Amino acid sequence: MASTRVGGIGRLVCAAAAALGGAAAAAQDQNPAPGGRDALVDLKPAAGAPAAEKPVSFSGFYDFLGAYTYSDPSHWSNAVNRFQLSAQGKAGEGLKWKIGGRVDGDIVYGSSDFYLPDVRNDQKWSAFWRETYVDFSAAGWDFRLGAQNIVWGEVVGFFVADVVSAKDLREFLLPSFDVIRAPQWAARAEYFKGDSHLELVWIPFQTFDDVGKPGSDFYPVRLPSPTPGSVAAGFLDPEKPSQNLGNSAYGVRANTLVGGWDLAAFYYRSHSNSPTFYRVPSTIPGLPFLVQPRYDRIWQIGGTVSKDFGPAVGRAELVYSDGRSFASTDPVAPQGALRKDTLDWVVGADFVLPRDVKLNVQAFQRIYSGGEDTLAVQYGSFGVSGMISGKVTPTVEPQLLWIQTFGGGGGLIRPRVNWTPVRNTTVGVGVDIFTGPDDGVFGRYNNRDRVYTEVRYDF
Description:
Blueprint: E1 3-7, H1 16-20, H2 23-30, E2 37-38, E3 56-69, E4 75-90, E5 96-106, H3 107-111, H4 117-123, E6 125-129, E7 132-138, E8 141-148, E9 166-167, E10 170-173, H5 177-180, E11 181-182, E12 184-193, E13 196-203, H6 229-232, E14 249-258, E15 261-271, E16 276-281, E17 289-294, E18 297-308, E19 312-322, E20 325-327, E21 337-339, E22 342-353, E23 357-369, E24 382-389, E25 396-406, E26 411-419, E27 425-435, E28 450-458
């Protein structure tokens, strides 16, 4: 594979999610959500007797985020309430189950006329399945059937090797992982022996990334803000593959522990979770062509490694992808896109410093076959990220995330302060600052800088 220029991490994965999530990510670090609360009954065992196992447990969270975009044109960009509830339990011997859902409602999109009607209808309220599955074992294998998060990555805050998960990208990578991830309806089989593990995955009908509607703040193509309807009319809804078994996704992953090194390798065949924007003929007067998002058929191989070195935990991921095309500014590119194989890698380390200061540093890169000079979105030649946080009091924790690409991708700076007034509750105040050229992976949002506050309660 020829390689010239390089770009930022595949699929906009920069450590954005390490703190890109804002409150929820911080809440998970400070107050890990419990596995669930007893809900149906409150059995209190007699003194000295073992605690009775509850038939059903519940868990979830409530999250409010209010955001004001102060870049010109300034406007309220979020006032979203999220409520997620999951229940889990057992059904007889050897069968476990879980069911979950989330509802989002955003006052801004329900009342403001800043956004186009299609954007408002798409984001004023949403309802989602969350993880909903059954677990059972047979012939030495563990099986999970249903909607589930399949996480193959090891690096904290990155999506490089997390190739199976679909994502809700309507707010880019700013929310926490448990908000961004969209479960896949899949069948998964796992086999464990000693320190080794084999995993088989089959997804009959894929779930794809939700990129929103043209005119939304974080649509993947940079558009004027606010976006005129005449401009948005040039963008069609994503064209998803037909739902047949020939379009199903499947993969295999194996990992083992050798001398303290956790090593894993995988192969995954699917359609790309993220769409490619193709040019197609137009029948609309005044528009020479339309833009059609489509999902390319691809295959990926990759590996991960992690090891605890005592003062630091090191992690790395490497993924090669074949079959995807990328929108191009080359006037002779077929349908405005060029097929490019990619090689993504990321290396990072986590440190716990004196006074409970946490530090994460990472380096990342994407290598395109044939270079990326004419691609519509530039990832830059190389990237680094750093996140540091530490408590100044038992309940107040400032943190700073800085992601920077070199060579045109731009960057993201996220200072934030978290306050934990009571257990499982986090109040955060922060700023999201995008930098870089208009065609950079971060720079395309350089007029989306915002201040925000977030309140989250986990139960």
